[in-house]
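Notebook p. 47: complex prediction with NDP.
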Amino acid sequence: MNIQNYINGNFHNPIQDDWLDNYNPSNGEVYSQIPNSSSEDVENAYIAAKSAFPSWSQTTLDERSRIMLKISELIEANLDRLAEAESKDNGKPIWLAKAVDIPRASSNFRFFGNAITQFASESHESVGQQAINYTLRQPIGVVGCISPWNLPLYLFTWKIAPAIAAGNCVVAKPSEVTPMTAFLLSEICNEAGLPKGVLNIVHGLGTTAGQAIIEHPDIKAISFTGGTATGAHIAKVAAPMFKKLSLELGGKNPNIIFDDCDYEDMLITTIRSSFGNQGQICLCGSRIFVQDTIYEQFKKDFVNVVSKQKVGHPSAPDTKIGALVSKPHLEKVLSYVDIAKAEGGKVLYGGKQIKVEGYENGYYMEPTIIEVQTDECRVNQEEIFGPVVTIMPFTTEDEVLQIANKVKYGLSATLWTNDLKRTMRMTNQLQAGMVWVNTWLMRDLRTPFGGVKDSGVGREGGFEALRFFTEAKNVCIKY
Ligand code: NDP
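Predicted complex, structure tokens below:
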């Protein structure tokens, strides 16, 4: 099956007729071809978006909302098909795609389709000066949305939905590794009656198609989710053109466990926050710090529960951990096990590639727990983005706060304690864009989402996203 670019409501082969192989990570086989698009394809997408903008930006909020809610419904109606496609493209268990990825993609359209009808701007009466100021929130024009492979449709729609809700037209590029559901979304957009050119999807490599989007002088805002190095590159390219940027980047998030926590709840959630989606979630708590009073107990229980997590084919209902997204990524993750050993880390569980019967060429790996002696080793500092966690004991609150903050990243943090004062002190001081207390990855789409330090710039989510995708213009009227 060939994936095609979606430009001006139509499906196109890449102009240069150049194609890339798309792999199924569960068996290592090529199962489709995707356009290796060039800057000419991106230019065509830009032209379509530009022509659609005058009409879309003037489309009433009710009408925009109606179309977006229709897209949301159609995503829901296609749940099984989309979940199967996501699982095949990414390697994640089908049940996970059905329970999380696809419902969330539908919610993104529903949420922003509704949010735009509630979005408001401010007015300021200049008392004593007989003037009133009000702020217009105007769409930017043509914007670029670039997303990664770990939560393909979930993150792709997280950007596109607020962008179009706010009246922009979009040139978007999903990860070249997981393009399938973005392609299926384009069919859904046509069925929902999204006007031609409002959303344009160009498939291909980051370094060519993605680069053409970020370099385009008239694509005035870029919303990007991906690795920190790519984010830094995008910032460099975009800066001289004064583009608006929202960068959601990597993480190396602490999971801090105190001895007064609800132990069972913590243990079950820690399995999820360590190995959910094969550990390929930017919010995974990949550095686990456990208070020394319960460290030995935790170690024993954690290894025991992790050893029961079935690694298997994504279509098997009892599979807890599916395939990693690609061969190079599997190799990268495995290389960190060697790095850990060389650094004096002790592999408490896992660490090896797995051959799943019948799918021997798939990219499977054991969930892996590494006990580290110091927080300063590479496995504790660098984002691995796979089913690998480190664990380490701590004694005091001050000590764990210091090591939790001693990384270049600052995306999220998780805290397990029932002590209210400690919760207040620590949530204030943890360097992160999001802190979960006694839970993990509980999302409310109204909340600001993003990181500090090398985890990014800007916030998405709720009205923050609508603010990002609009320009504020103040109007001052003297009367
Ligand atoms: P990458 O940074 O490699 O790629 C992300 C996207 O950017 C892909 O679509 C990629 O295309 C594209 N891209 C690559 N180079 C360029 C370029 N020069 N110009 C424009 N676009 C480019 O990240 P991954 O796909 O490997 O995703 C994993 C990373 O994403 C992890 O670091 C993870 O932490 C982060 N992430 C952050 C989240 C957050 O909200 N903070 C959420 C989820 C993931 P292609 O795939 O074709 O290379």
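Notes: The pocket of NDP is lined by residues 146-150, 155, 173, 175-177, 205-207, 210-211, 214, 225-227, 230, 233-234, 248-251, 282, 383, 385, 411, 451, 455-456 (CB under 6 Å). The two ends are 64 Å apart (CA to CA).
Next step: compare against the earlier run before touching the bench.
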